[in-house]
Amino acid sequence: MDNLYNYFIKFSDRIYFLTVKKLDINGKLYKNIDIPINSNVLLDNIKNKNFNEKINLEYFFEGILLLNGIDSNFSNITLLNNFIKSKNINLLEFVKSKIKFNNDNFDSIIYNLLIIRGLLNLEIHDEFIKKIYVKFLLSITDYDNTYQNVFLNEIKILLSDLSRNIENDSLINMLYGDLYVKEKFYIKANLYYKKSLTNTNYKINNIINKKIEEISNKIKIEELLQLVDRFKYNECYKILDSIDKLNLDKEDLYWIGYIYNKLNEIDKSIYYYEKSLDLNADFLNIFIELGLLYYKTNKIEKSLKIFEKGLSVYIDDEKLLFNKIVIELKLKKFKNAKDDINKMLLYEDIDNSIMNDVLYLKELYKEELAF
Question: Are residues 269 and 257 in contact, defined by beta-carbon separation less than 8 angstroms?
């Protein structure tokens, strides 16, 4: 769980503390103990004037679990955990009753993760809780990808642990499928989704079949990329014809443009690259590849605009800037080319071959550039 500590500590504002004047833990009396409570619960009860001298103990149970999920190293955590354990409450069932299964917004997912994580940090769990924890870890990456690699590594550990104890479990296979979708291994995801189909639960089957349908284009694109890598170009056309062209995102459009580029179908490649850019694609390679295609087809001004657009995103990229210099020289925009050459010569750790090419151009056009 420590791998995720730096992420979840950010949610300390999800709890406030109430000072309890007297607290009995296994017959021992403690005074003025700060006990955590869900901040939303506290604010709602204050607003509705529901608090009195006797506060529902479940608020404290929930707060201590949330605190464990946020910061299991909290200074007073051992005392608080002893308190919650002394009440002989079935924490596993308590947490299950608190999970918001039907709400997929960010706040609900974070709440679910914190309270389940709190339970896991107390070393209380069953297989269902661990599966649900994985599900919500996968869900949070749809909203926040700042810690995505850390999340995915944690998910792999959890699924590996679950798989050792349960063989060919439908939900685990589906979670593996979801994991590989996040990692963009769509063929692998498809295999796990198909393994998760059951003969009895048609509701689950419908969910899984929908997941398979959603990645059907991406599976085909991954197959195409494998064929391209093996130079089996003739086998690509049948798969390309089978792709649903009406349901492509910017990444799909880029890869189809890339594949047509490899097939030397220049017009089709340009078409799909441009369609990808229309959806605000900002992949480095799309600017390089499309710019070179326009240059190859003698559409020099368009080529320059693509490299300039790429440099507006990747400001100091050496490949984009070098290609821009080449085109500026071809268009006799010598002042711009001179400025860009001077800029590139200041780059540190530049690729040696690019640096040599820049120096060659500087020498070749020395009169025009008036160096």
Answer: yes
In angstroms, rounded to a whole number, what is the distance separating the alpha carbons of residues 63 and 115? 9
Residue 338 tokens, joined: 């001179």
Backbone angle region of 57, left / alpha / beta, with phi > 0 → left and psi within -120 to 50 → alpha: alpha
| 97 contacts 67 by C-beta, under 8 angstroms | no
As a whole number of angstroms, the distance between CA 162 and CA 160 comes to 5
**pLDDT, averaged in runs of 10, over the chain (371 residues):** 85 93 88 92 78 75 95 92 91 95 91 96 93 96 90 95 87 96 97 86 88 96 96 95 92 97 97 97 98 97 97 96 96 95 92 94 91 60
Helix (H) or strand (E) holding 25: strand 15-25
Quick one: which of 127, 129, 131 has its CA closest to 171?
Answer: 131
Q: Which residues are within 8 A (CB) of 310 and not within 5 positions of it... i.e. 6 or more apart?
A: 284, 286, 287, 288, 291, 317, 320
pTM confidence score? 0.86
Contacts of 89 (CB under 8 A, 6+ apart): 61
CA atoms within 13 A on the CB side of 333: 14
Give counts: helices (H), strands (E), the chain: 21, 2
Q: What long-range pairs does 285-294 form, CB within 8 A, spacing at least 24?
A: 285/254, 285/258, 286/254, 286/257, 286/310, 287/313, 287/314, 287/320, 288/319, 288/320, 288/323, 289/257, 289/258, 289/261, 290/257, 291/320, 291/323, 292/323, 293/261, 293/266, 293/269, 294/270
